[in-house]
Write a structure and sequence with these properties.
By secondary structure, the protein is an all-alpha fold. Helix content is 69%, strand content 0%.
Length: 85
Amino acid sequence: MARMLDQFSSWLEHTSVSETIQSISWIVPTVQTIHILAITVVAGSVLMINLRLIGVFAADQPLKHVSARFQDRLMPRVKRQPHRS
């Protein structure tokens, strides 16, 4: 298993995408920034739902409405193509 992982890592390191990422200095910080912002959005949405559950935030609104407001941030909907037979 370790050998397969080593071979995969070596292959991945030499792909054109990997070499581009290694050669352009601004790509890694940009991807990391987007990743941190996405985690923040998800964590904020979870926090709002949890605050609603303990009655601190939007206690006058049904949980269904509050969770629906943050649902797209937690689990974005994937548009499905109609199945063709």
